[in-house]
Amino acid sequence: MTQLDRLKTRLGEICDLRAAAAILGWDQQTYMPPGGGAARSEQLATLQRLSHETFISPEVGELLELAAAETADLAYDSDEASLMRVTRRDYQKARKVPPSLVAEIARTTSQGIEVWTNSKAQSDFALFRPVLKRIFQLEQDLARCLEFDEHIYDALLDQYEPGMKTNVLKALFADLRQHLVPLVQSVSQSRRHVDDSALHQLYDPQKQWDFGVEVLKRFGYDLKRGRQDKSAHPFTTSFSVNDVRITTRIDEGFLPSALFSTLHECGHALYEQGVSHSLERTPLGGGASLGIHESQSRLWENLIGRSRGFWQFFFPRLQSIFPQALSKISFEGFYRAINLVQPSLIRVEADEVTYNLHVLLRFELEVEILDNRLNVDDLPEAWNSKMKTYLGMIPPDDTQGVLQDVHWSNGLIGYFPTYTLGNLISTQLFEAATRECPAILQQLEQGEFSELLNWLRRHVHQHGRKFLPTELAERATGKPLQADAYLKYLTEKVADIYGT
Ligand code: ZN
To answer: Tens digit of pLDDT for each residue in 435-484?
Structure first.
């Protein structure tokens, strides 16, 4: 047995522990009775501790050193060289954080979520303030342990988007801000009114579910290696390439809710089902980053699911399923309704154009706090003033403002920008795919997606975590990550729908 084999055996066991924890997490959010909560927290904590301890053990460090000699001559993109490179990076990072800090963060954030839930329900930021202050302090401590060169935010960002830098994000967001703020204003001033009332009617839940499954299958989601269930918040989870599950939620009175969340999660699931089998039970099995993951979900949800081509095939079908609700709306009316642009207070309900302004606001606030330029005490005012600048609205209360997202209470700082990165990467990938295979666009209109899926499989999915996200995007599209493709896509779409 080579040293690399010994290392792979150890890493395989760690993957098993993580997959077991993921199954418990899936069950918790789908079928577990409420009474199971306390025991489940213990079970999850034990599995997570075991996998973490096994990974940071000196034995893994030793095996990494010994196996390095065996893999030194292998090509950069080979499975083995990539495994060594990525595992070494993960290992060094995991060893930098003292277990006492990990435990303190886990304790504080589990309390944080509870306090946030109350504080949001009462729309009282003052309740949340002390624990939020503590969370930001702990995240600053964490960043210092993880180390950084230029910006403290880099260390936190790197956990979700390896290799991404604050300065690169600042430039991307500046570009977005410069173009999106006037674009939103031009929509508000447009004389063309988009009416989405047809979407707010009664839609039979079982029929919504069935239609979603029909589209999932068409997209290429393999139900022999996956399944869909219901949960309060839709998510995707993977226990192996051959078991990738999604969830959805259904709103009887609003058609887009289940439909687009199903397409979104399907995009995540197609990615996980497409990872090369040779990367199974290694740290390379899974997505390259949150941003790349989100690029896959956004591509299927928006670039496909909100496109004319897609609905040319599916609208007649949808009309036949919901004849009463959809008989009076034209194809064009429906297409416009699902693409309505309207500044709103809540990020998760935002349309494609305003969405990234919500993310920009959070990114700026996080950076200012970590830089000690903004005090947590002043967050609500800072939030409202940025909302006014970017979206022209001021939240009437903190529930619809600074308290709306769970992320900060959970210690997820440096996470929000990955949503926008996903949007940018999705269009850059789609542009590259349709340039290389123009037939993709005609196939959409026939409900046929295999060529697009195959392109994504080749350029993105199969590689798992082998490459850094920026590396992967550049290899797939031939250029570094930019906002250009995204801005072009949005500007053209808005001009088409609003006549701007
Ligand atoms: Zn997502």
So the answer is: 999 999 999 999 999 999 999 999 999 999 999 999 999 999 999 999 99
Nearest-angstrom CA–CA distance, 96 and 115: 29
Distance (Å, rounded) from C-alpha 257 to C-alpha 62?
A: 50
Q: What distance in angstroms lies between residue 412's CA and the mean position of ligand 1's atoms?
A: 15
Answer yes or no: 265 catalytic: yes
CB 234 within 8 A of CB 264: yes
* Ligand 1 centroid from CA 289, angstroms: 12
Q: Are 339 and 310 in contact (CB under 8 A)?
A: no
Of the residues 59, 65, 252, 265, which is catalytic? Answer: 265
CA gap 255, 315 in Å, rounded:
13
Residue 493: closest CA among 188, 259, 260, 183: 183
419 C-alpha to ligand 1 centroid (Å)? 8
Q: What is the pLDDT of residue 497?
A: 96
Compute CA 164 distance to the chain's CA centroid, rounded to the nearest angstrom: 15
Cα–chain-centroid distance for residue 234?
12
The Cβ-side half-sphere exposure at 347, using a 13 Å CA radius, reads 21
List, in sequence order, the alpha helices (H) in 239-351.
255-273, 290-298, 308-321, 323-326, 331-337
How would you class 154 by CB atoms within 10 Å of its CB: exposed for 0-12, middle for 13-18, buried for 19 or more? buried
Are 450 and 196 a contacting pair, CB within 8 Å?
no
Structure letter (DSSP) for residue 284: T
Q: Give pLDDT tens digits for 401-420.
A: 999 999 999 999 999 999 99
CA 14 to chain centre: 24
Torsion of CA 322, 324, 327, 332, to 10 degrees: -60
- Please tell me the distance between residue 244's alpha carbon and the centre of ligand 1 in angstroms: 14
Confidence of residue 200 (pLDDT cuts 50, 70, 90): very high
| 3-state class (DSSP) for residue 371 | coil
Amino acid at site 288: A
CA 111, 116, 121, 125 torsion: positive or negative? positive
**Å from CA of 16 to ligand 1 middle:** 24
Pairing state between β 243-248 and 236-240 = antiparallel
Tokens 């940071």 found at: 56
Strands 226-230 and 243-248 turn out to be parallel
- Decide if 227 contacts 244 (C-beta within 8 A): no
C-alpha to C-alpha distance for 85 and 124, rounded to whole angstroms: 47
